[in-house]
Every structure is written in C-alpha cells, then in structure tokens.
Amino acid sequence: MATRNLPTERQKRLGAEMRKMRLAAGVTTEYAAGLLGIDRTRLSNMESGIRPFSAERVRTLACNYACGDIGYVEALAIMADHKERGWWEQYRGTLPAGLLDIAELEWHATRVRTAQVMHVPGLLQSEEYARAVFAAVLPPLSRLEVELRVAHRMERQQVLQRAEPLPYLAYVHEAALRMPYGGPGVARQQLARLAAESEREELELRVIPNGAGDFPGAGHALLYAEGPVPQLDTVQLDSAHGPDFTGAEAQLTKYRAHLDWMDDAALPSAASRDLIRTVARDI
Known about the structure:
Layout: H1 9-25, H2 29-36, H3 40-47, H4 55-64, H5 70-81, H6 97-108, E1 111-116, H7 127-135, H8 143-156, E2 168-173, H9 174-177, H10 184-197, E3 203-208, E4 222-226, E5 234-237, E6 244-246, H11 249-265, H12 269-282
Parallel strand pairs: 1-2, 2-3
Antiparallel strand pairs: 1-4, 4-5, 5-6
C-alpha cells in the first residue's frame, strides 16, 4: 500500500493506538512485523500513520498482543477499514490540514462537548459572523482564504443536520456572547440564531455567566470528541499555530474535569437562552 506524506490526525491516532497496544504487550517491532510478514520499517511507518493498517492486521496484532478488550479492538478495526473520502477532502491543499482534521474528528465522533470563551462555537456560527471571525486573524488572511474558511465552516455544520445528528453540548462564556464580531447587526443575528438552535433536541447550549468568576483554562477553546469507546476520545485545543490534538489519558482526564467544572458553573438551558436574548437586546 502507498505511503502517506501527511497522514491525517485520525490515521496517526490509529497507528499510535496500535503502537501503545504493542508496547503494553511487551512485543518488539521486529516480532510484530514478523507476525504480519513485513519488515520492521514498514510496521514503524504503519504505527506512525504513514502507511495504512487493514482491519485484518489490526485484529491479528491485537490477538497476538493478548488484548482482551473486544470493543476497543473492533473500534480500531473499523477505523482501519473506513476508506470513504469525507466531504472535507475537497479542501485538501487549499486549507490547513488541521482544519480538515477537526471536520473529520467531528464527523466520526459519537458526541461532542465544546467550551468557548471568545466567540460562539463554529458549528453554530452564521456565515456573516464566521466571516468576521476569520477577518480578525493575524497575520491577515486574503479574501480568498477567508471565503474558503467560511465555506468549510458552514459545511462542518452538516454533522448537526444529517439524518442522525451529532449529539452536541456547548458551554459558551457570556464574554463570547458580548463580543460584537461583524458589528451590532451581525452580532444580534448570530445571537438570535444561537437561541433558536438551542431549542433543538440533540443540541444543548449552556452559558457560563460573568458572575461565575474565575474558571479553569481561561481563554482556551476546547473541543472534546467522544469516540466509540472511551480510549478513543480526543481533545482538540486551539492555539496560535493551529489546532492541537491529544488522546493521552492524562489529558483526557484533565479536560473531562474541566468540562465537569463548566457543567456545574453554567446556567440551565432555558436560563441560558434567556441570557442570550438579553445580551442581544443590549448590543
């Protein structure tokens, strides 16, 4: 099978999980490669996401690694077997790979929780609001770059509109509601949309009021994507150089606690909707 110059985060995650499984079993690269009838370099490339795993090879290695977690193994096999190109691939080469990785992460998640402090969540943004957010990036983006990002962000919202919508829980700080991206008119329209979207059954939106005071991770935008099994959960954080992804258990535990704090601090859904409408009137 062909090598990949730039594997996606999902491909790298599969390889990393297979490497973690091998190390937990105390199996060397040479021995594992021999089980598959390949050389150790090829297996190393597979564990790096540069070469693909097949579902059959995932199961073969898991059996020889004595991994008894059937759900986990089958989830990895499904990851390996999934070859369908997602809609985000049309943007490959024109947008940073990290933006495509976010779309792929959301598409395959079983549930997403997000926390936003500076602006409303991307999956709930209007086109005009998203355009204003991208126009505020430094160094400035060209008009084409802004429009490509806006189009990609709008298409990301498919996960909330498909036949089986993505279960979605968003914690939004009141400060984000009061940031008038695009000016008062755009901001009011965005807040009206936010209030309307929060009425949807599969979507929960809760606001953290300014009165909540200090909170952990201030300033960080956080996306927690749940996988088919807990071991495959993923955290995505925004940074100045682009999105960061992690599936390390220590980090997953940290950000689950972060979201649990937000759950305690946030207003109930109905009160959050009332606050959104109050802020809209104030703008």
